[in-house]
Amino acid sequence: QWKQLENLYFREKKFAVEVHDPRRISVSRRTFGQSGLVVQTWYANTSLIKSIWVMAISQHQFYLDRKQSKAKIPSARSLDDIAMDLTEMRTPKVSKLATLEAKNQLIMASNGSLISSGSQDSEVSEEQKKEKIMELKKKEKLLQEKLLQKVEELKKICLREAELTGKMPKEYPLSAGEEPPQVRRRVGTAFKLDDNLLPTEEDPALQDLESNFIIQQKLVEAAKKLASEPDLCKNVKKKRKQDYADAVKKLQEIENSINEYRIKCGKKPTQKSTLTLPGKQ
Q1: In this predicted model, what pLDDT tens digit does every residue of 24-70 receive, in sequence order?
Q2: What is the pTM for the complete model shown?
């Protein structure tokens, strides 16, 4: 019976009804003691469970409104009095429905509950709300910290691109009123391939290898200039020298691939890298 209702709630796929039954004594998980509280539980998919819960809330509200209306109606009444009362009660009924609808809009999709007035679960519900708020604030803080970290990473990437191209990319994150930083282009990072520099081999595969060799050769020259810059700290200088050595190694590997292919095709091998590059530094 509705008068025995203590709580209606759902959590994801679970719908439960808590009622007081003086004939049964059970142990309540919330009060940790003996009480007449009986819990009936049903399981289904989340959308169905929420729909059942909303209908149950509406039925309970109808029961409360009907009970309140009966208390106001005298034992003996005329038809005119009943018509007058219905006219006067129409407006507050509409406002109650609007209030109930507004409350339903605030219900979370994952869980919800109805706590009757004077229930022992009221304090538990408030405690759960506080825990939920603290958990959400903690998640918000973690997300903000991660966002700041990603923004800093994006700034570093944009600065590195600006040092290579001499132009700050539009993706650089700026705060309100903040001006983009001025960045000087690195010395020796720009080079241009002449139009007549690329080979015109009849064999497409060999032409592709020759093109890769020329491009890598320019990269070696740029890496050498960067490694030769003065006034570099020890770590940076070491890193640039290693980059230069790696570029030279890759150039030699490309030349080896070219010579292997030329020998396979019956052509004479070349020694391009040893002729165009000085000794390793």
Answers
A1: 655 545 544 446 788 889 999 988 988 998 899 888 888 888 888 87
A2: 0.31
Amino acid residing at 48: L
* Of the candidates 243, 201, 198, 239, the residue with the CA atom closest to the CA atom of residue 220: 243
- Mean pLDDT computed over every residue of the chain: 75
- Domain-wise residue ranges, the chain: 2-23+36-69, 189-280
* Single-letter code of the amino acid located at 128: Q
**Rounded distance, CA 185 to CA 265, Å?**
44
- The number of C-alpha atoms within 13 Å of 267 and in the hemisphere containing its C-beta is 11
Query: Structure tokens of 138?
Result: 């903690």
Long-range CB contacts (within 8 A, 24+) of 264-269: 265/203, 265/206
Q: Return phi, psi of residue 56, to 5°.
A: -65, -40
- Judge whether 258 and 205 are in contact, CB under 8 Å: no
The pLDDT tens digits of the residues spanning 128-181 come to: 888 889 989 999 999 999 999 998 888 888 888 887 777 888 888 888 888 888
Using CA atoms, how far residue 254 sits from 50, 64, 167, 169, 218, in Å, is 66, 86, 32, 33, 13
Look up tokens 């229930």; give the residue: 119
Q: Would you say 13 and 49 are in contact if contact means Cβ atoms under 8 Å apart?
A: yes
Coil/strand/helix, residue 7: strand
Residues pairing with 40 in the sheet: 17
